[in-house]
Fold these 3 entries.
Entry 1:
Amino acid sequence: MNTTEQQLRTDLAAAYRLLDLNGWSDQVFTHISVRLPGDEPAFLINQYGLRPEEVSASNLVSIDVDGNKLEAGSPDVNPAGFTIHSAVHMNRHDAVCVMHTHTMAGMAVAALEEGLLPLNQTNMTFYDRVAYYDYEGVPLDLEVRARIVAALGDSKAMILRNHGLLTVGRSVAEAYFLMYYLNQACEIQLEAMKAGRSLIVPDHDACEYTARQLNNERYHLESVDLVWQAELRRLDRLDSSFRS
């Protein structure tokens, strides 16, 4: 195993552990993947049946976009997870990491006709920058891959209606960062809606200006790195077994 793959394995295992710590776990049905180096698209994903806190660098499964496991005797992966992740990895070269969650806030907003509203500056990060994929059932049929990719377009965040959330990043750190704030945006919206009062939605110009500020490349990448390094320190203090 080369150094690059080892680092990808470590970062991906860290993301699974953080998913658990943040309360985003859906038993064994949550999945994150990371593209492996190489000319042919292949990726790492969790073993089907493991909870996020059981994932470590060494027990991740390597698989190509045709479903072929790259190591003999590897365990199975989540079939629906394979469909979603292979769809993105085979079509979006910039999507090094793909993160999909079934958080309560994410699933709730995914069921709202209006989708995500720009009610707070956190939400405005995704203003006119979040894609939507209409529900078609559990994604087991590989034919849906083309429609998933078409819906995602060049966005880094997508709400799968009546299902959950998805983010993609140029690194595990970026996909995690985007998921953290996409989920937080959903939580903010639900909390505001609980008040039962009229919601203040800023005008387009204010929302777009804020979105450009928060998505400034230099600011964004610095924020991603600072947050990721802080989260790795948190994990190492609590349990560094994700590295094994």
Note: The two ends are 14 Å apart (CA to CA).
Entry 2:
Amino acid sequence: MTVTGLREAKKQETRQLISDQATRLFMAKGFEQTTIAEIAEAARVAKKTVTNYFPRKEDLAFDHQDEFVASLARTVAAREPGESALSALRRDFLEAVERQDPVAGFAGPEFSRMIADSPTLSVCLRGLHDQREDALAAALAQAAGAAPEDITPRAAAAVLGGVHRVLFARIQELTLAGLGNAEIAALVGPEAAQAFALLEPSLGDYARA
């Protein structure tokens, strides 16, 4: 590796170490009860190093938030020839359920409880859902060739994003009820198909590639 490559690898290693230690402490003590100083001590770095990598404390808990926010828009942009936005999003979600993807909500009982028990993280999660919906609206507008003043992409994104919110919450609900990921996937797969089917009459042909 080059010197630059080694430096970047070291930065990524440090970032992951801080994130892992923060998550461990959050799950053990609670998000609000854990301090940046405690995280820095656990990761054996300076407090300034923690805040340099993660400007907000919430970023330590949601270290994959960029992937989450971009996920629906990316699915629409990568839809197959002849495939509508609805079909692409349904296919992608069902595949995520099959592989029990954490981005879809399969985060495990400890992490799910950490979010549910923290008012701060619960609000942050709602904000991430909002950002994901905004990104989806932009992707739908581009896919449909919509005019800037056209409200349709935003309305479609609200509906499609709403289904994803409901399904994400359902996975969290079942996780906190004590079900394992395989059991949850077996339940949520058919429920997701049913939820997306409700949108077929209105959005079945929208933004078809």
Note: The mean pLDDT is 95.
Entry 3:
Amino acid sequence: MSPARTSPPAEGPQLGLRERKKIKTRTAIRDATYALIEEQGYDATTIEQIADRAEVSPSTVFRYFPTKEDIVVTDEYDPVLLAELAGRPMDEPWVDSLRHVTRMALGHGLEREPEITRLRARLMATVPAVRSRMVESLAVTGRQIAEAVSARTGLDRDSLEVRVFTMSLVGGLAEITLYWAENDFRDDPTDLVDRALAVLEHGLAPQHGLAHRKP
């Protein structure tokens, strides 16, 4: 079986030659990383091996990805999805907008590169260094989403309310990935999205008989 390959998104305007070369290099580095991890595991895979497999220098790898963990937790889809979120109708309920964009994100991964999507989720769930870097990356994503939230609500992007909302959102989406991997990918990810968004929208529903239990 041929190794899984990553595929950059096709949406958006035509890119110039320089940007296409950058995407090609990033894709080659990711492909090399995932192939090596499949062969020998995450911890055994080094930047030098990745560079050799991708036919670039180690300094080039570091120029595109400051750490090995960044290769796993970053992708090309964030700008596309953030633009999609910002472009949703202003009067659309937030949950509907988030459901649309989150399902689009899942579609990108599961339809175009299902093996890589599952490998990334498994690494996030099982490798502490990857999970830690994922948490740091979520803070950046949260700040980007805050721009769309601010535009939709008129609230200051740095307000406590916007910060709590956006970090609750990105944290919840991260937990979908971890839960999915920890349960051997048995669940339908779109169902997990709906369940997570229901919690954000309505809070936790107590189990029958527990609501009136006295301490």
Note: The mean pLDDT is 86.
